[in-house]
Design brief:
There is one protein chain. Helices cover 24% and strands 34% of the residues. A hairpin with a 5-residue loop joins β1 and β2. The chain is of the alpha+beta class. Strands 5-3-4-6-7-8 form a 6-stranded mixed beta sheet. The protein has a two-stranded antiparallel sheet with strand order 1-2. The protein is elongated.
């Protein structure tokens, strides 16, 4: 536990005791999209052979969990005001993707299919630029109750490892706790 004092402009001294130096906080949103798995460099027949039924138009109801990691503000106790995070999510995610066709209404999947892995990486890149102060820790995109992808920066990336890391049920399993 750490003791902190904060002096306000009015010369009032506030005393705080902190249990943790860094905190994680997660906000979740739900949205829906339509899509089809399709590589732009392949014909419809080749895409059908490669992706099977997923090459046809279908939809998903996604749950996006956005986790921030940071030191809480001494005055508010917040890593980031959740209304500010909600505004970022509304502007950057809901406005771009909710009730949109990922293949035709967005520029992100002209070449690569909107798999959960690819979609989660796109979302991570958008939020990494939008969330202030380097607070973005991880995004978790749940396509279904038993399929999700986590994207986060590798803690100690070597020169050969750059970019975000991913995990999903096949690597972490449904019982993984964070």
């Amino acid at each position: 536990m750490t003791t902190r004092f904060v002096e306000l402009p009015s010369r009032i001294l506030i005393y705080f005791q902190w249990v943790a130096e860094l905190l994680r906080i997660t906000r979740a949103i739900d949205f829906s999209t339509s899509l089809r798995y399709r590589r732009g460099d392949l014909s419809d027949a080749e895409n059908a052979e490669l992706f099977g039924p997923l090459s046809r138009q279908h939809g998903h109801n996604y749950r996006l969990e956005v986790t921030l990691l940071g030191e809480p503000d001494p005055l508010t106790g917040m890593v980031l005001d959740l209304k500010d995070l909600q505004q970022i999510l509304d502007n950057e995610i809901m406005r771009r993707f909710d009730h949109r066709d990922l293949n035709n209404d967005t520029p992100y999947f002209e070449k690569d299919p909107p798999t959960p892995e690819n979609f989660a990486q796109v979302i991570y890149g958008i939020l990494r630029s939008a969330v202030p102060g380097g607070l973005l820790d991880r995004v978790r995109l749940r396509q279904d109750c038993d399929v999700w992808v986590d994207v986060f920066e590798a803690p100690s990336a070597s020169p050969s490892q750059t970019g975000p890391s991913q995990t999903g049920p096949s690597q972490t399993g449904p019982s993984q706790t964070w």
